[in-house]
Amino acid sequence: xESVTINGADVPVDYDGARIALPALQASNVVTVTSRGExxxxxxxxxxxxxxxxxxxxxxxxxxxxxxxxxxxCFEQPDLKAPFTFVVTAPPAWEVVSNQRVAAxxxxxxxxxxxFAPTLPISTYITAIVAxxxxxxxxxxxxxxxxxxxxxxxxxxxxxxxxxxxSSRSPxxxxxxxxxxxxxxxxSASTTRCSSPSTTSAPWRTPAV
Length: 209
Known about the structure:
Elements: E1 3-6, E2 9-11, E3 19-21, E4 30-38, E5 45-50, E6 57-62, E7 87-90, E8 95-98, E9 102-108, E10 111-116, E11 129-132, E12 135-143, E13 146-154, E14 175-177, E15 187-195, E16 199-201, E17 204-205
Antiparallel strand pairs: 1-2, 1-4, 3-14, 4-15, 5-6, 6-11, 7-10, 8-11, 9-10, 12-13, 15-16, 15-17
């Protein structure tokens, strides 16, 4: 945990390993938390997998039921919904996917910065990021006035058999939840800004690996 500010003022970082204390809150507040966490190897939080078959690194998030706090500070209750905006810094050839469409993709020295459009107000546990040298196949399904976009991400070993399938997704307190993931040598960084009652944006940055 690097820093916590409340309504523009720095406050001492009071982190008990699971939650961050937020003192002297007003009726309306903006809280910004900057932290650096470790990748998960257990499939929870932000999972990092080094595939021995191709030597490539693959990342994906899994937050159910209560693992979003492994990646960014949040009020982790299903009834506290908020719009999320994710910004991902990744190697140039990586596919980067989130809940919403890509709003902007900017090339940088040795990488790319992908900015996604804001989500509708949703619970933390259904936010998602997938990043890595995945093979991507896009398609769509249409019926009547409805068109559903379809897509598959897979490793290069599976690309010859990948087929898109239909899927669907349903689009304060004095503590913010956070938890340190299982120990791994590689780290990710995040900055989360929360404004009460539940509006949250989470610029999310991952170093090249």
